[in-house]
Amino acid sequence: MWCKRTLYALHMSELAPERVIERIRQRIVINEDGCWQWQGGKSVGYGRVSWSGGEGKVWRLTHRVMWQYVNGPIPEGLDLDHLCHDPANCSPAVASDCPHRSCCNPEHLKPATRQENLLRGGNIAAQRAKVTECPEGHPLDKDNTIISKRGQRRCKRCAYKRNRDYYWNNRERRAEYNREWRARQSE
């Protein structure tokens, strides 16, 4: 009995027919930097191609189709990372406008974990991961870093100072609370 996930994996690993590869080749423009820019339909900036498959219409991203055609299946659990993308030189206002998303040159692609792929990009997570010091100049290393409940890195020294300042700035409030608490206990 096939589970839904297995069927999805088989469906995603389905190789494109030769006629689709030829159609992709006809719609590629090769840039001076070696990128194979897809000139057909796109989805969020990535080239997209379709064909009739066993269960109806099959949609695939062109860079994945070309990788599979040249190198075989994409290793399970890995994404294809565009090595031609350099966030320092390419940072459009809208991520889908990045010209490297439509590159389908297999030599410009590398299987990578999702985290590796995202941290190579120019997104906010990648920018924050590159920060090595807190705003006060303390190092964000293993000994001086706290991970918050939301997964954010925090400086231990700054957190200690913040807590200490709060403690001393709220002496009156604490004393009042303690008086009220003792009064309730004595009743």
Beta-strand percentage range: 15-25%
Q: In angstroms, what is the radius of gyration?
A: 26 Å
CATH topology of the largest domain: Homing Intron 3 (I-Ppo) Encoded Endonuclease, Chain A
The chain-level mean pLDDT equals 85
Helix proportion range: 25-40%
- So what's the overall shape? elongated
Overall number of strands: 9
What's the helix-strand series? HHEEEEEHEEHHEEHH
Main beta sheet: strand number and arrangement? 3 strands, antiparallel
Q: What are the segments in which pLDDT stays under 50 over at least 5 consecutive residues?
A: 1-11
What is the end-to-end distance?
A: 69 Å
Structural class: alpha+beta
- Can you identify the CATH class of the largest domain? Alpha Beta
What is the tally of helical segments?
7
Can you give keywords for this protein?
187 residues, alpha+beta, Homing Intron 3 (I-Ppo) Encoded Endonuclease, Chain A, three-stranded antiparallel beta sheet, two-stranded antiparallel ribbon, 7 helices, 38% helix, elongated
